[in-house]
Write a structure and sequence with these properties.
The protein is built from 11 helices and 17 strands. The protein is an alpha/beta fold. The strands form 4 sheets. Strands 1, 4, 5, 6, 7, 8, 11, 12, 13, 14 and 17 form an 11-stranded mixed sheet that branches. Strands 2-3 form a two-stranded antiparallel ribbon. Strands 9-10 form a two-stranded antiparallel ribbon. A hairpin with a 2-residue loop joins strand 9 and strand 10. The chain starts with a strand and ends in a 24-residue tail after the last strand.
């Protein structure tokens, strides 16, 4: 069993009341069963805000230049004083200059209006009945405000309409880790990195970087594991065969100067004109060395809406509005995308292809079957289920809940435990002439 733990996560707030205010905020304020982004008001457990004003000079700032920061709550039990849970926020991406300009005036691009306290559920819950493995840990919520999954590493700001925009995600990660050292991180022994949505993607992109940083700076480090929640966003064409999401993520990779803010081994594997691929989980996943667990829906509700049935904003990548992508834009597919039971049999075959492609992309990587790893891939039409108490405890594959799958993997020895027992695969939706179409009965009651 691990002696002391640092849980580093990148995720989203649950049950918040307010959404980001820029046009397109609906892309990150929809269909997540209570999960909303950019607001810093969450569940009952309380973490206090720490703005890193002392790190501004080293570049740890949000898009608008305001100080980056994190929320912190000390361990609830003395026996867990060296156990840490650091949770990096998610909330999508901005894709071009005007999109990022709009984002810079929201809680996902500025710390100006962050609340003094916040909380998250599921894997971050302090209720030991919900979250028995991590409930009493020191908790850190690393707030997301750089626009590209903590990868930005641009020296000079991008000036849009007279406003400088700063892409400094990698420097924010460094600053948070440095700030946590005197708060007890220097004594951490076991480390667990996790995150959800854009934060889940950041878990793929930064796992090995954070692992190496800790090995270098924390001499007590004993073991390290990482797990991504809803972060395996496919580089997939929309239903019409258009590479919408690829164009968006490729553009922000270059705008944010993310080449040296993602996985170095991935960058080394591609020529310069293809290094943008390392902004995607599927191209980074094969290069991850640390023990890793992937939690994702193969029929993720954000991906079906904002990848599979999306279109580019008018004028992209030189749009004049602050729109954040045109999700669920394909009229004949809108109702089907929102609820599988609304799909006719032909549409359901097409939607099932996304599940098939998801499985193929993930399982083709050697990382999938590497000792110490695992993947809990289900079919529920949800997103960020690891931060939702009900879904965390009730969604099952092979009779095993997400929570129990995490616990089993967490307590296994990383170097010798085979991946196969920790790999769970999704079913495909029923394609008959009538519904219901669900193939996993535990998905039928997703809760709030």
């Amino acid at each position: 069993m691990m002696k002391a733990t640092l849980l580093l996560g990148i995720a989203v707030l649950a049950n918040s009341e307010h959404a980001p205010s820029w046009k397109g905020a609906g892309n990150f304020d929809m269909d997540f069963k209570g999960v909303k982004f950019g607001d810093k008001k969450g569940l009952g457990l309380t973490m206090d805000l720490h703005l890193m004003e002392d790190k501004v000079a080293q570049g740890a700032v949000c898009l608008d230049g305001s100080p980056a920061g994190f929320y912190f709550s000390p361990a609830a039990d003395v026996k867990d004083r060296n156990n840490w849970q650091i949770y990096f926020e998610g909330g999508g991406w901005c894709y071009d200059d005007m999109d990022c300009y709009g984002r810079s005036s929201t809680g996902l691009g500025s710390s100006t209006h962050w609340a003094s306290t916040m909380g998250v559920g599921g894997i971050m819950s302090d209720n030991c009945a919900i979250n028995p493995d991590f409930c009493n840990f020191n908790r850190v919520f690393l707030t997301y405000c750089d626009g590209n999954s903590f990868t930005g590493n641009r020296d000079e700001p991008l000036v849009v309409k007279g406003k400088p925009l700063y892409f400094r995600g990698r420097r924010i990660i460094d600053a948070v880790l440095e700030s946590l050292m005197p708060m007890g991180l220097k004594d951490a022994e076991d480390v667990f990195l996790t995150g959800c949505s854009a934060g889940g993607l950041a878990t793929y992109l930064h796992t090995d970087y954070v692992h190496q940083w800790l090995k270098t700076n924390v001499p007590t480090l004993d073991a390290f594991k990482a797990a991504s929640i809803s972060g395996f966003f496919l580089n997939h064409q929309n239903i019409l065969g258009q590479p919408v999401y690829e164009a968006q993520m490729k553009n922000i990779f270059h705008v944010a100067n993310s080449t040296h803010g993602v996985n170095d081994a991935c960058i080394a594997a591609y020529p310069a004109d293809e290094q943008w691929k390392c902004n995607f989980a599927q191209y980074t996943y094969p290069h991850i060395q640390a023990p890793f667990l992937a939690l994702n829906s193969g029929y993720d509700s954000w991906q079906t809406k904002c990848i599979y049935t999306s279109e580019l904003e008018p004028g992209f990548p030189n749009q004049t509005s602050t729109g954040n992508g045109d999700c669920n834009a394909l009229g004949p597919w809108q109702s089907c995308q929102e609820n599988p039971d609304n799909c006719n049999s032909t549409q359901m075959v097409t939607m099932n292809k996304y599940i098939t492609d998801f499985k193929a992309d993930m399982q083709s990587a050697g990382t999938y079957n590497k000792n110490g790893n695992g993947a809990f891939i289900h079919s529920c039409h949800t997103h960020c289920e690891g931060t939702n108490d009900h879904q965390w405890m009730t969604f099952k594959v092979r009779g095993v809940t997400i929570r129990d799958a995490f616990s089993k993997w967490w307590h296994q020895h990383s170097s010798t435990s085979p991946a196969a027992p920790n790999n769970y695969v999704p079913c495909e939706y029923k394609t008959g002439s009538t519904g219901p179409r669900d193939c996993n009965p535990t998905c039928l009651n997703p809760g709030n």
